[in-house]
Amino acid sequence: MALPAPVYDLVLLLDPRAEDAQREKVADDAARIIGDGGTIVENQAWGKRAMAYEVDHQKEAEYHLIQFEAPRETIESLDRALHIADGVVRYRIIKLPLDAPAPTPLGAAVPEPAPAERSDRSERSER
Hints:
The longest helix is centred in the N-terminal third of the chain and has 18 residues, at about 20-35. α1 runs antiparallel to α2 (about 70-85). The protein has helices at about 20-35, 70-85, 120-125; strands at about 10-15, 40-55, 60-70, 90-95. The N and C termini lie far apart (about 50 Å). The protein is an alpha+beta fold. It has a single domain (about 10-100), classed as 2-Layer Sandwich (Alpha-Beta Plaits). Strands 2-3-1-4 form a 4-stranded antiparallel β-sheet.
């Protein structure tokens, strides 16, 4: 039995100081490269957000998330294109585990995790 095709996440951080046309071109080129050799599962533009730490004296970036299925050659081509593209602050391509949930649409309520069951150890420590 063949395993299902792996799903990848591309998290793309674009320079908000770059022109709108340049940022749009980079995101469209990434989607085109993926579409040429693979399949886009989800494409979300998260907009401008604060970064966890400064990169080249920048505190914000325009975030994009693209989930896709693609062969190794497509991922290598995407990596090469993003590495030399102007306006890219950072990017990361991550292979997701087979049981990974789909991304939550922007603005949707995130479900609360189920409460953890208490073990006997925690009950004894409370007495």
